[in-house]
Design goal:
Length: 60
């Protein structure tokens, strides 16, 4: 069975990938620049910050 930090990391990276793909689609489809930048920022947070906080928080 997978431990909680691993599950948080996997789910968070999957959600981040979805946001990244939305941002890429928005860039190619000429969406508003603010929307695509926000989507990229949210993707970065879900792919980096959330897994690290989840791993460190459960390790303590």
């Amino acid at each position: 069975m997978l431990e909680t930090p691993v599950m948080i990391g996997i789910v968070s990276i999957c959600i981040g990938f979805v946001f990244f793909m939305l941002a890429a689609t928005g860039t190619r489809s000429k969406w508003d620049k603010k929307v695509t930048i926000t989507l990229f920022a949210v993707a970065i947070v879900f792919m980096t910050v959330v897994p690290v906080i989840g791993a460190v928080g459960f390790a303590a």
